[in-house]
Design brief:
Rossmann fold, nine-stranded mixed sheet, 277 residues, 25% strand, alpha/beta, binds the ligand N[C@@H](CCC(=O)N[C@@H](CSC=O)C(=O)NCC(=O)O)C(=O)O
Protein backbone atom coordinates (compact mmCIF):
# COMPACT_ATOMS: atom_id res chain seq x y z
CA UNK A 1 0.00 0.00 0.00
CA UNK A 2 1.39 3.40 -0.98
CA UNK A 3 0.43 6.69 0.69
CA UNK A 4 -0.28 9.31 -1.98
CA UNK A 5 -1.11 12.16 0.40
CA UNK A 6 -1.69 12.88 4.07
CA UNK A 7 -3.15 16.10 5.43
CA UNK A 8 -4.07 17.19 8.94
CA UNK A 9 -7.70 18.32 9.13
CA UNK A 10 -10.30 18.80 11.89
CA UNK A 11 -8.12 17.05 14.46
CA UNK A 12 -7.45 13.98 12.34
CA UNK A 13 -5.60 12.81 9.27
CA UNK A 14 -7.02 12.71 5.76
CA UNK A 15 -5.07 10.20 3.72
CA UNK A 16 -5.17 8.91 0.16
CA UNK A 17 -3.68 5.49 -0.62
CA UNK A 18 -3.09 3.26 -3.62
CA UNK A 19 -2.77 -0.51 -3.51
CA UNK A 20 -2.68 -3.47 -5.87
CA UNK A 21 -6.10 -5.12 -5.90
CA UNK A 22 -6.44 -8.86 -6.51
CA UNK A 23 -10.20 -8.42 -6.98
CA UNK A 24 -9.92 -5.98 -9.88
CA UNK A 25 -6.45 -6.89 -11.11
CA UNK A 26 -5.54 -3.20 -11.10
CA UNK A 27 -4.20 -0.59 -8.74
CA UNK A 28 -7.03 0.97 -6.72
CA UNK A 29 -7.06 4.29 -4.88
CA UNK A 30 -9.12 5.15 -1.78
CA UNK A 31 -9.28 7.95 0.77
CA UNK A 32 -9.57 7.52 4.53
CA UNK A 33 -10.14 10.06 7.29
CA UNK A 34 -8.94 8.91 10.71
CA UNK A 35 -9.84 11.14 13.68
CA UNK A 36 -7.27 11.44 16.45
CA UNK A 37 -7.70 8.67 19.01
CA UNK A 38 -5.94 7.23 22.03
CA UNK A 39 -3.14 4.76 21.20
CA UNK A 40 -4.45 1.21 21.09
CA UNK A 41 -8.10 2.20 20.59
CA UNK A 42 -10.06 1.35 17.46
CA UNK A 43 -12.72 3.50 15.81
CA UNK A 44 -15.94 2.54 14.01
CA UNK A 45 -15.87 2.74 10.22
CA UNK A 46 -18.32 4.43 7.85
CA UNK A 47 -18.05 3.47 4.18
CA UNK A 48 -19.01 6.09 1.61
CA UNK A 49 -19.67 4.81 -1.92
CA UNK A 50 -19.65 7.41 -4.67
CA UNK A 51 -21.74 7.87 -7.79
CA UNK A 52 -21.31 7.87 -11.55
CA UNK A 53 -18.19 9.63 -12.84
CA UNK A 54 -16.66 9.86 -9.35
CA UNK A 55 -13.35 8.77 -7.91
CA UNK A 56 -12.50 8.83 -4.19
CA UNK A 57 -11.76 12.53 -4.67
CA UNK A 58 -15.30 13.91 -5.15
CA UNK A 59 -16.54 13.29 -1.62
CA UNK A 60 -13.09 13.83 -0.14
CA UNK A 61 -12.90 17.33 -1.59
CA UNK A 62 -16.59 18.32 -1.54
CA UNK A 63 -18.29 16.16 1.10
CA UNK A 64 -17.53 18.29 4.19
CA UNK A 65 -17.68 15.26 6.51
CA UNK A 66 -14.48 15.64 8.54
CA UNK A 67 -15.80 17.85 11.34
CA UNK A 68 -18.62 15.37 12.08
CA UNK A 69 -16.28 12.37 11.84
CA UNK A 70 -13.83 14.02 14.25
CA UNK A 71 -16.62 14.98 16.68
CA UNK A 72 -18.09 11.46 16.71
CA UNK A 73 -14.83 9.52 16.39
CA UNK A 74 -15.74 7.79 13.12
CA UNK A 75 -13.37 6.73 10.32
CA UNK A 76 -14.70 7.45 6.81
CA UNK A 77 -13.43 5.39 3.86
CA UNK A 78 -14.16 6.48 0.27
CA UNK A 79 -13.21 3.94 -2.42
CA UNK A 80 -13.09 4.52 -6.17
CA UNK A 81 -16.14 3.57 -8.26
CA UNK A 82 -14.42 1.22 -10.72
CA UNK A 83 -11.11 -0.21 -11.83
CA UNK A 84 -9.12 2.07 -14.11
CA UNK A 85 -5.95 2.15 -16.17
CA UNK A 86 -4.28 0.54 -19.11
CA UNK A 87 -5.98 -2.64 -20.25
CA UNK A 88 -9.23 -1.87 -18.41
CA UNK A 89 -12.15 -1.66 -20.84
CA UNK A 90 -14.18 1.54 -20.95
CA UNK A 91 -17.22 2.99 -22.66
CA UNK A 92 -17.60 6.48 -24.06
CA UNK A 93 -20.78 7.09 -22.04
CA UNK A 94 -20.47 8.50 -18.52
CA UNK A 95 -22.85 5.89 -17.08
CA UNK A 96 -21.04 2.69 -18.05
CA UNK A 97 -17.47 1.39 -17.79
CA UNK A 98 -14.79 3.27 -15.88
CA UNK A 99 -16.32 5.47 -13.19
CA UNK A 100 -19.52 3.42 -13.31
CA UNK A 101 -18.78 0.02 -11.77
CA UNK A 102 -22.24 -0.23 -10.14
CA UNK A 103 -20.74 -2.29 -7.27
CA UNK A 104 -21.27 -5.58 -9.12
CA UNK A 105 -19.05 -8.54 -9.93
CA UNK A 106 -19.41 -8.48 -13.72
CA UNK A 107 -19.93 -11.78 -15.50
CA UNK A 108 -20.02 -10.54 -19.11
CA UNK A 109 -17.01 -10.04 -21.40
CA UNK A 110 -15.02 -7.86 -21.54
CA UNK A 111 -16.02 -6.48 -18.11
CA UNK A 112 -15.67 -9.67 -16.04
CA UNK A 113 -11.86 -9.53 -16.02
CA UNK A 114 -11.59 -6.32 -13.95
CA UNK A 115 -15.04 -5.11 -12.88
CA UNK A 116 -15.34 -6.96 -9.53
CA UNK A 117 -16.36 -4.02 -7.38
CA UNK A 118 -18.65 -6.15 -5.20
CA UNK A 119 -15.75 -8.39 -4.13
CA UNK A 120 -13.49 -5.39 -3.76
CA UNK A 121 -15.87 -3.51 -1.44
CA UNK A 122 -17.30 -6.50 0.42
CA UNK A 123 -14.05 -8.41 0.99
CA UNK A 124 -10.72 -7.09 -0.17
CA UNK A 125 -10.77 -3.47 0.95
CA UNK A 126 -12.28 -4.19 4.41
CA UNK A 127 -9.48 -6.71 5.06
CA UNK A 128 -6.90 -4.09 4.13
CA UNK A 129 -8.54 -1.35 6.24
CA UNK A 130 -8.78 -3.69 9.24
CA UNK A 131 -5.14 -4.68 8.93
CA UNK A 132 -3.59 -1.24 8.27
CA UNK A 133 -5.67 1.26 10.28
CA UNK A 134 -7.11 1.62 13.81
CA UNK A 135 -10.46 0.42 12.55
CA UNK A 136 -12.93 -1.64 14.56
CA UNK A 137 -14.33 -3.90 11.86
CA UNK A 138 -17.05 -5.13 14.24
CA UNK A 139 -18.57 -1.63 14.02
CA UNK A 140 -19.21 -0.73 10.37
CA UNK A 141 -21.83 1.42 8.69
CA UNK A 142 -22.33 2.17 5.00
CA UNK A 143 -23.68 5.09 2.99
CA UNK A 144 -23.33 6.42 -0.51
CA UNK A 145 -24.68 8.74 -3.18
CA UNK A 146 -26.74 7.90 -6.28
CA UNK A 147 -25.02 4.85 -7.87
CA UNK A 148 -23.14 4.70 -4.55
CA UNK A 149 -26.47 4.90 -2.69
CA UNK A 150 -27.50 1.84 -4.68
CA UNK A 151 -24.19 0.25 -3.64
CA UNK A 152 -24.72 1.10 0.03
CA UNK A 153 -28.30 -0.22 0.10
CA UNK A 154 -27.54 -3.46 -1.74
CA UNK A 155 -24.29 -4.22 0.09
CA UNK A 156 -25.95 -3.35 3.42
CA UNK A 157 -28.99 -5.53 2.66
CA UNK A 158 -26.84 -8.48 1.60
CA UNK A 159 -24.59 -8.20 4.67
CA UNK A 160 -26.77 -7.31 7.67
CA UNK A 161 -24.32 -9.01 10.03
CA UNK A 162 -21.49 -6.78 8.91
CA UNK A 163 -23.20 -3.40 8.79
CA UNK A 164 -24.95 -2.06 11.88
CA UNK A 165 -26.24 0.98 9.99
CA UNK A 166 -27.19 1.70 6.37
CA UNK A 167 -28.09 5.05 4.80
CA UNK A 168 -28.06 6.66 1.37
CA UNK A 169 -28.25 9.95 -0.53
CA UNK A 170 -30.42 10.09 -3.67
CA UNK A 171 -29.99 6.35 -4.27
CA UNK A 172 -30.96 4.38 -7.37
CA UNK A 173 -33.29 2.15 -5.36
CA UNK A 174 -34.42 -0.20 -8.13
CA UNK A 175 -31.80 -0.38 -10.89
CA UNK A 176 -33.75 -3.14 -12.64
CA UNK A 177 -36.58 -0.65 -13.25
CA UNK A 178 -34.69 2.47 -14.42
CA UNK A 179 -32.52 3.35 -17.45
CA UNK A 180 -29.15 3.79 -15.64
CA UNK A 181 -29.50 0.42 -13.92
CA UNK A 182 -30.96 -1.50 -16.85
CA UNK A 183 -28.07 -0.39 -19.06
CA UNK A 184 -25.39 -1.25 -16.46
CA UNK A 185 -26.86 -4.56 -15.32
CA UNK A 186 -27.39 -5.75 -18.90
CA UNK A 187 -23.83 -4.81 -19.80
CA UNK A 188 -22.15 -6.30 -16.71
CA UNK A 189 -24.45 -9.29 -15.98
CA UNK A 190 -26.27 -10.07 -19.22
CA UNK A 191 -29.94 -10.21 -20.17
CA UNK A 192 -31.12 -12.63 -17.45
CA UNK A 193 -32.99 -10.39 -15.04
CA UNK A 194 -32.93 -13.03 -12.30
CA UNK A 195 -29.19 -12.35 -11.97
CA UNK A 196 -29.88 -8.64 -11.42
CA UNK A 197 -31.95 -9.09 -8.28
CA UNK A 198 -29.05 -9.29 -5.83
CA UNK A 199 -27.95 -5.88 -7.17
CA UNK A 200 -31.32 -4.19 -6.73
CA UNK A 201 -32.37 -2.93 -3.27
CA UNK A 202 -36.11 -3.17 -3.92
CA UNK A 203 -35.76 -6.69 -5.39
CA UNK A 204 -33.54 -7.78 -2.49
CA UNK A 205 -36.19 -6.64 -0.01
CA UNK A 206 -38.94 -8.35 -2.04
CA UNK A 207 -36.82 -11.52 -1.94
CA UNK A 208 -36.47 -11.41 1.86
CA UNK A 209 -33.35 -9.34 2.66
CA UNK A 210 -33.80 -7.40 5.89
CA UNK A 211 -32.14 -4.66 7.91
CA UNK A 212 -33.83 -3.11 10.94
CA UNK A 213 -33.84 0.45 9.57
CA UNK A 214 -32.71 2.70 6.71
CA UNK A 215 -32.10 6.44 6.42
CA UNK A 216 -32.44 8.02 2.95
CA UNK A 217 -32.22 11.68 1.91
CA UNK A 218 -33.13 12.86 -1.59
CA UNK A 219 -33.67 16.40 -2.90
CA UNK A 220 -37.04 17.43 -4.37
CA UNK A 221 -35.18 19.35 -7.11
CA UNK A 222 -33.02 16.37 -8.03
CA UNK A 223 -32.85 16.23 -11.83
CA UNK A 224 -32.82 12.41 -11.73
CA UNK A 225 -35.63 11.97 -9.20
CA UNK A 226 -38.48 10.73 -11.36
CA UNK A 227 -36.64 8.77 -14.05
CA UNK A 228 -33.64 7.20 -12.28
CA UNK A 229 -34.19 7.31 -8.51
CA UNK A 230 -37.87 6.59 -7.84
CA UNK A 231 -37.76 6.77 -4.04
CA UNK A 232 -41.42 5.71 -3.86
CA UNK A 233 -40.40 2.19 -4.88
CA UNK A 234 -38.28 1.90 -1.73
CA UNK A 235 -41.16 3.26 0.37
CA UNK A 236 -43.42 0.48 -0.90
CA UNK A 237 -40.88 -2.31 -0.48
CA UNK A 238 -39.98 -1.24 3.08
CA UNK A 239 -43.61 -0.84 4.06
CA UNK A 240 -44.42 -4.37 2.86
CA UNK A 241 -41.33 -5.79 4.57
CA UNK A 242 -41.67 -3.96 7.89
CA UNK A 243 -38.33 -2.17 7.52
CA UNK A 244 -38.26 1.15 9.39
CA UNK A 245 -37.40 3.54 6.54
CA UNK A 246 -36.79 7.20 7.30
CA UNK A 247 -37.02 8.72 3.83
CA UNK A 248 -36.63 12.51 3.79
CA UNK A 249 -37.40 14.56 0.70
CA UNK A 250 -35.32 17.68 1.20
CA UNK A 251 -37.04 20.72 -0.36
CA UNK A 252 -35.16 22.47 -3.16
CA UNK A 253 -32.01 20.34 -3.11
CA UNK A 254 -30.62 18.86 -6.33
CA UNK A 255 -28.37 15.85 -7.04
CA UNK A 256 -25.04 17.60 -6.48
CA UNK A 257 -22.48 17.64 -3.71
CA UNK A 258 -24.04 20.92 -2.52
CA UNK A 259 -26.85 18.60 -1.39
CA UNK A 260 -24.70 15.71 -0.15
CA UNK A 261 -22.41 17.98 1.87
CA UNK A 262 -25.41 19.65 3.54
CA UNK A 263 -26.58 16.36 5.08
CA UNK A 264 -23.48 14.15 5.24
CA UNK A 265 -22.68 15.40 8.76
CA UNK A 266 -26.22 14.36 9.85
CA UNK A 267 -25.65 10.91 8.42
CA UNK A 268 -22.27 10.59 10.18
CA UNK A 269 -24.01 11.42 13.49
CA UNK A 270 -26.84 8.94 12.74
CA UNK A 271 -24.35 6.18 12.01
CA UNK A 272 -22.21 7.09 15.02
CA UNK A 273 -25.20 6.68 17.34
CA UNK A 274 -25.68 3.13 16.04
CA UNK A 275 -21.98 2.26 15.95
CA UNK A 276 -21.07 3.45 19.42
CA UNK A 277 -22.97 0.76 21.35
N1 LIG B 1 -22.21 13.92 -16.10
C1 LIG B 1 -23.52 13.44 -16.01
C2 LIG B 1 -24.02 13.36 -14.59
C3 LIG B 1 -23.05 12.72 -13.68
C4 LIG B 1 -23.43 12.96 -12.24
O1 LIG B 1 -24.28 13.74 -11.90
N2 LIG B 1 -22.75 12.24 -11.37
C5 LIG B 1 -23.05 12.34 -9.98
C6 LIG B 1 -23.53 11.02 -9.52
S1 LIG B 1 -24.93 10.50 -10.51
C7 LIG B 1 -25.27 8.92 -9.99
O2 LIG B 1 -24.51 8.09 -9.65
C8 LIG B 1 -21.84 12.79 -9.22
O3 LIG B 1 -21.66 12.46 -8.08
N3 LIG B 1 -20.99 13.57 -9.90
C9 LIG B 1 -19.73 14.01 -9.34
C10 LIG B 1 -19.75 15.39 -8.71
O4 LIG B 1 -18.71 15.77 -8.17
O5 LIG B 1 -20.79 16.07 -8.74
C11 LIG B 1 -24.41 14.31 -16.81
O6 LIG B 1 -23.86 15.15 -17.45
O7 LIG B 1 -25.64 14.15 -16.74
Amino acid sequence: MEQLSSNRSHGGMQGVYRHASAATGTDMTFSIFVPDHAPGTKLPVLWYLSGLTCTHANVTEKGEYRQACAEHGVILVAPDTSPRGEGVPDDEAYDFGQGAGFYVDATEAPWATHFSMRSYIEQELPALIGAEFSADMDRQGITGHSMGGHGALTIGLRNPGRFRSVSAFSPIVAPGQVPWGQKALTGYLGEDRAAWREYDAVALIEDGARVPELLVDTGTADQFLEVQLKPELLDGACRNAGIALTQRLQPGYDHSYYFVSTFLGDHVAWHAERLKA
